[in-house]
Amino acid sequence: MPILSPWRSDFPALAALAADSQTYLDSAATSQKPQAMLDALLGYYRAGAANVHRAQHLPGERATRAFEEARGKIARWLNAASHDEIIFTRGATEALNLLAYGLEEHFHAGDEIVISALEHHANLLPWQQLAQRRDLALIVLPVTTSGQVDLVAAKHLIGPRTRLLAVSQLSNVLGTWQPLSELLALANTHGAITVVDGAQGVVHGRHDMQQLGCDFYVCSSHKLYGPDGVGVLYGRAATLQRVLPWQFGGEMLLQTDYYTAKFRPAPLGFEAGTPAVSAVIALGATLDYLASLDGAAVLAHEAALHAELLAGLGARPGVRVLGAPQTALASFVVEDVHSADLAHLLTEQGIAVRAGHHCAMPLLRGLGLPGAIRVSLGLYNDSGDLQRFFAALDHALEILG
Length: 401
Ligand SMILES: Cc1ncc(COP(=O)(O)O)c(C=O)c1O
Description:
Blueprint: H1 12-19, E1 23-24, H2 35-47, H3 58-77, E2 86-89, H4 92-102, E3 112-116, H5 125-134, E4 137-141, H6 151-157, E5 162-168, H7 180-189, E6 193-197, H8 209-212, E7 216-220, E8 231-235, H9 237-240, E9 253-256, E10 261-263, H10 277-292, H11 295-314, E11 319-321, E12 329-334, H12 339-348, E13 351-352, E14 354-356, H13 361-366, E15 372-376, H14 383-400
Helix pairs in contact: 2-10, 3-10, 12-14
Bound molecules: pyridoxal-5'-phosphate.
The site of pyridoxal-5'-phosphate (PLP) has 15 residues, from helix 4.
């Protein structure tokens, strides 16, 4: 029985892409958007744009209220203990840079920062650069062949010198959930600050910050069916107090003269300048839409489609899937075929997948691969998308073989 998505028609871009003969299987890079989010985005501008937290007039009040309501919706989505633990950034990348700069003064020469071998560049480079600035050691946890952080190694590598642990929740290359509770427990034993890169994980299922127990969690709206230009930094209140502002400007201060300033506490103290007002409001509407769906049905749909993807890849001789993907995506290579050539032929047939190093160059290099093809699923994908992909793959392999 082909798997259909009951939510496909909520996403107008799917029909537009189909009209362009495009099959979209790149949701891990960015997602398509529900009508509810498009309505909110346009509705905000149609009703009258205004800046937030400063204007006394009606449009300003309205924008501020909607903006802060969206903060509340995100706090509820993540089950943060307070709205004040939600900071808006430009994306997950900016949230991680905020932390690497804002926490800098807590690090001293010889301290250790621990990451894993499968991190996205966004959760590697800010720490790598901080390590260089402060003369710290960057420790890289190895990954097992199935694609999870090796916990035996982690027990040896996370220790009393560990000041910070930063790991992904769900790998954007391998589609594997990471053993977060074990890793966070190890880091907590040594009093290290914990950072979870939830850019991929946040899209699949609900994640409870109070249960997870990390200090910081970052994600991007655009992968979660929301608009681009906005990201979220969740920070546990007690740890957030240890972060210094890293960008300075309007609305993040309590008072200033020409020579000194006093800054606001979180969240506004970390939101210098005009934020992405429309995008934040539209993200709030996206969460309303997602909250209206049957979450268990969405997960079951994703799991069934993922199983179909893995079965199809597994049935093709010469195709090797990287690691043991658990959800939403699979990256693969084909014996004796360069993935760039394959990607080219897939693109020519209207299949939108991602090819290359997936912003995880050291991981791919460690696997001895210049690149791989990644197929990733959104809640709107269906068996028809996979059938078109497999037909295009077979055709491409015939040409290349
Ligand atoms: C695991 C992971 N972390 C971080 C990011 C960066 O997200 P953004 O580019 O939205 O800042 C991505 C985006 O692909 C990702 O997959």
